[in-house]
Design brief:
Belongs to the DDAH family. With about 260 residues, the chain is α/β, with parallel strands linked by helices. The protein has seven helices and twelve strands. Strands 1-2-3 form a three-stranded mixed β-sheet, with helices on both faces. A three-stranded mixed β-sheet has the order 4-5-6. Strands 7-8-9 form a three-stranded mixed β-sheet, with helices on one face. β1 and β2 form a beta hairpin.
Length: about 260
């Protein structure tokens, strides 16, 4: 995770960003700290990277890399404003003992558009990550990759429209939650076939970034406003953990955007 010390909305690179809307940085820092402390309370280790001036979106650490089995695929951002973040995160990985690092040749916004199910890497495209980056990820990790097309610009990253609730085990493909209208008709059919028991989000759930959640297979950290989704998750046996991230949402991010999951 990266503290939002320099968080601001000085430009608009997604539909949620409005430079004319004031940002309360102190409130953003407090909300971010609440998310970090929630992870620690749930028993997870949180590593922090030092934020850099001039990079207000560096707080959205999920876009900085994908880590599976200790192997790292770095990021290559579409928006030039975020481009320098990739090198800062690469240096962090190098300095923390990660030696198998590949920096992508194609535009690849990392966990923003990649979701690991434990058996299959779901990969989004349509607005940010290039389709060719999906093949690049398959070569790096040697795991099957399933391409999914996003069609609603409000849900420009896969992690705004889908997240993994529990990873695959035995005959189970794992469980996901997602918002079907964010995907092309063909991608909707694929998801319905692979995950027939998925939790389906409402319009209201999606619009408050409810699908930008983080699950450890039991606890599900998600925005406090996603009350309907939280209820459905509780009915499935998960423990919803609501957090308040309204200030960071002004930059187009929620819990998952602020969280890079390191799978060693």
């Amino acid at each position: 995770m990266c503290p939002p010390r320099y968080f601001a909305v000085d430009y608009a690179i997604n539909p949620w960003m409005d430079p004319d809307t004031p940002v309360d940085r102190e409130r953003a820092l407090a909300q971010w700290a609440g998310l970090r402390d929630t992870y620690r309370r749930l028993g997870h280790t949180v590593e922090e990277i030092e934020p850099q001036p001039g990079l207000p979106d560096m707080v959205f650490a999920a876009n900085s890399g994908l880590v599976l089995g200790g192997r790292v695929l770095g990021a290559r951002f579409r928006a030039p404003q975020r481009g320098p973040e990739a090198e800062h995160y690469r240096r962090w990985f190098t300095g923390h003992g990660y030696h198998d690092i590949t920096m992508p040749s194609r535009i690849n916004e990392a966990e923003g558009d990649f979701a690991w199910t434990g058996r299959l890497l779901l990969a989004g495209t349509g607005f940010r990550t290039e389709p060719e980056a999906h093949a690049e990820a398959q070569e790096v990790f040697g795991v099957p990759v399933l391409s999914l097309r996003l069609v609603d610009p409000r849900f420009y990253h896969l992690d705004t429209a889908l997240f993994v609730l529990s990873e695959a085990t035995g005959d189970s493909p794992g469980e996901i939650a997602y918002y079907p209208p964010a995907f092309s008709p063909g991608s909707q059919r694929v998801l319905a076939r692979l995950f027939p028991d998925a939790v389906i989000a409402t319009d209201a759930d999606a619009e408050c970034f409810g699908l930008n959640g983080v699950s450890d297979n039991r606890h599900v950290v998600l925005p406090a406003e996603a009350a309907a989704l939280a209820g459905r998750l509780a009915d499935r046996g998960y423990e919803p953990v609501p957090v308040e991230l309204s200030e960071l949402r002004k930059g187009g991010g929620g819990p998952k955007c602020c969280t890079l999951e390191i799978r060693k």
